[in-house]
Task: inverse folding
């Protein structure tokens, strides 16, 4: 309880409604940052997958060109079937990830991946501080609720999740 009172004084929360608003805001900030991190990770994964597909495509393209030069002969296809399958898979992956967009240069992809990694790192730093703030606010509010005898079962269930 002493820690709860100290928290209330430090944050100048003298009204219960202010404490509830602060707790809700801290929880909302935490969840927003979690969503931002998840979105950044998805984009980072997409860029990394695209880069891998481009590299695989570049490695297997000569085999396809040879197949084309051999006028799509079955013999050449049988000899290079695995490589040609990798080529088709890389091409399909690139088409899926690009969604009709023009393929950016590898330098652009590398820079974007670097920026996304830096953004993810910064978001995680902010996320950890928001998580700590949320935990403190929720704990203080729970202590004050217990002290005041406030029983709101639905709120407790939401906070426990």
Result:
């Amino acid at each position: 309880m002493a820690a709860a009172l100290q928290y209330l004084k430090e944050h100048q929360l003298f009204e219960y409604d202010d404490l509830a608003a602060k707790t809700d805001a801290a929880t909302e900030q935490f969840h927003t940052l979690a969503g931002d991190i998840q979105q950044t990770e998805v984009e980072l994964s997409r860029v990394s997958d695209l880069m891998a597909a481009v590299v695989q495509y570049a490695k297997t393209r000569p085999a396809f060109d040879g197949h084309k030069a051999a006028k799509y002969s079955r013999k050449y296809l049988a000899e290079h079937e695995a490589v040609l399958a990798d080529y088709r898979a890389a091409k399909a992956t690139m088409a899926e990830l690009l969604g009709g967009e023009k393929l950016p240069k590898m330098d652009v992809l590398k820079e974007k991946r670097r920026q996304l990694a830096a953004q993810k790192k910064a978001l995680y730093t902010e996320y950890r501080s928001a998580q700590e703030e949320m935990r403190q606010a929720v704990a203080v509010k729970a202590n004050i609720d217990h002290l005041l005898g406030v029983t709101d079962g639905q709120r407790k269930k939401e906070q426990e999740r």
In short: The mean pLDDT is 90. The two ends are 23 Å apart (CA to CA). Residues 16-69 form the longest helix (54 residues). The chain is about 85% helix and 0% strand.
